[in-house]
Each structure stands twice: as C-alpha cells, then as structure tokens.
C-alpha cells in the first residue's frame, strides 16, 4: 500500500494556499462591510442563520452528537492509526499538521475571544446536544480545524491519478468534512462562520503540515520498526482514554474508534515482535 501511495501521491504546491487565504480575506472584507468586526456584531449577523441551522440539523441528535466527536483528535486519528505501519507517509504529515493546527487554534481563540452561543443566547431558545459550552472560545471551531487538517492530508495522499476522479474525490472529501464540521452548529457549540473559518484554517494547517514534512523530514523515523514501541505506548494510552469516554458517554463512535485502535495496536505489536 505504501508503494502505491508514494507513486500516486500528489505533492501540493504553495499556490494551493492562495485559495484559502483569499477566502479568509473575503470573509474579513464581508465582516468589515457589515461593520461586524466586534464580537457583538459578528454574532448579530449570524443569529438568524445559527437558529435556523441549529433547529434543522439538530433533528437527528444521536447522529449529530456521534459525528461531532470526530472533531476530537483522540477520536478521529485512531481510525487512521493502522497507517503507521502501512502508510507512514500520512502520519509524518499528520504530526506536523497537528502541531500547526493546535497553534492556530489556541492563538486565534485567545485573540478573538468570541463567546459561544450558550454564553449569549437563552439556552432554552436553541438546541444544545451534550455538554453546554459557554466559554469565550467560539472562533474558530477547533473541531472543524481538526477535521479539515486530517482530511486535507488524506485527500492529497490518496489523490486519484485521473483528473475526473480527482474532482469527485476532492468534492467528496470536502462535503464529508463540512457535514462533520457543521455538527458543531447542530449541537449548539458554534456559529456558522466559526465552522467555515475553522474549516479553512484546517485546510491551511493540512497543507502546511505536508510542506513542513517535505522540506524538513523531522518525522522520518515514523514507520521505522525500531520506534514502534513509541506508538505501542501512545495507542495504549489512547485506548485507556477511549474506554474512559465510553464509561462517561456510551457513544457508538467511541466504540468504533476503540476497535480501530485495538486492531492497530495488535498489528503494530505483531510486526514489531516478529523477526
């Protein structure tokens, strides 16, 4: 599989950063034109859309609550843990991209300090699924950043060779990413623009992760059997965390993530022990 991925792998160029940066610029200009650069106005121009999307999307609470957990890296990444053995190239980019996205997410949340819907609106006026989040950390959506950081790397790693299939592949990845990202509106945790901006930043983070890995090779040891114990330990810790999540919230998505991780732990341990 790794040889196939390497032969098909599309190395993105810096030009691909222009589109997301242009989108962020257009959003900034849009907010400026509406005089919505303060958090009060930023929330005000989205109020109707937030209530509309929240009421429509929250009609499937169990589905939305399960899907929104994929914005948690500890739930999403175990689904791709097997690639440590079979396609380590993915994890080399993922590690760099995850660090970049974490920096972006934390800095921007502190910079903007936009209050979440539950901190602004009457909690009885919209649907809240799961825990009520009421901090000043709404912009950008960290879950959207995580999803698009990961999906961007997957998109380029498994990019089809034929142009027509590339269009279908990229479109499908983006649509699935947005469906997962907008669960944050469904559960009442974010405004629509939080999700859109977070998705764009996630895409940028994914690209930067690929660029960093191409230039510096700092994660070249990933895929080397000598370092498998590092992943065996990491997988074991994540299994404990997922079990704890299942104890607290008995969600199907946690079981699926746990099963993926257990299978990966078995395979990587078997490969490491086998001489």
Average of pLDDT: 94
Task: Write down the domain tally.
Answer: 1
Derived from helix and strand composition plus strand pairing, the structural class reads mainly alpha
Shape: globular
β-strand number: 0
Helix percentage: 55-70%
Helices, strands, pairings?
Blueprint: H1 2-8, H2 18-33, H3 39-44, H4 47-57, H5 61-68, H6 73-76, H7 83-86, H8 88-112, H9 117-120, H10 142-157, H11 163-181, H12 183-186, H13 192-216, H14 228-248, H15 252-273
Protein name: Phosphatase PAP2 family protein
Pfam families: PAP2
Subcellular location: Cell membrane
Give a verbal description of the structure.
Pfam families: PAP2 (PF01569). InterPro entries: PAP2/HPO, PAP2/HPO_sf. Residues 93-210 form the Phosphatidic acid phosphatase type 2/haloperoxidase domain. By secondary structure, the protein is mostly helical. The protein contains 15 helices and no strands. The protein is globular. The two termini are 21 Å apart.
């Amino acid at each position: 599989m790794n040889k196939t991925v390497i032969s098909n792998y599309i190395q993105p160029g810096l030009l691909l950063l222009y589109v997301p940066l242009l989108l962020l610029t257009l959003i900034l200009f849009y907010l400026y034109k509406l005089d919505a650069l303060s958090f009060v106005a930023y929330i005000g121009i989205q109020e109707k859309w937030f209530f509309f999307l929240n009421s429509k999307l929250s009609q499937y609470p169990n589905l939305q609550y399960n899907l929104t957990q994929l914005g948690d890296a500890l739930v999403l990444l175990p689904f791709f843990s097997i690639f440590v053995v079979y396609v380590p190239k993915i994890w080399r980019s993922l590690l760099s991209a995850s660090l970049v996205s974490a920096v972006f997410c934390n800095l921007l949340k502190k910079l903007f300090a936009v209050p979440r819907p539950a901190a602004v609106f009457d909690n009885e006026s919209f649907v809240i699924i799961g825990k009520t989040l009421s901090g000043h950390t709404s912009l950008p959506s960290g879950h959207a950043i995580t999803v698009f950081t990961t999906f961007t790397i997957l998109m380029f790693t498994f990019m089809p060779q034929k142009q027509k299939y590339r269009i279908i592949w990229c479109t499908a990845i983006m649509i699935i990413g947005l469906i997962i990202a907008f669960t944050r509106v469904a559960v009442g945790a974010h405004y629509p623009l939080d999700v859109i901006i977070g998705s764009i930043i996630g895409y940028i983070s994914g690209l930067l992760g690929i660029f960093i890995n191409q230039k510096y090779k700092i994660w070249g040891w990933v895929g080397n059997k000598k370092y498998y114990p590092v992943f065996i330990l990491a997988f074991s810790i994540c299994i404990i965390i997922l079990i704890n999540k299942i104890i607290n919230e008995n969600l199907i998505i946690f079981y699926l993530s746990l099963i993926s991780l257990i299978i990966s732990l078995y395979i990587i341990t078997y490969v490491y022990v086998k001489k």
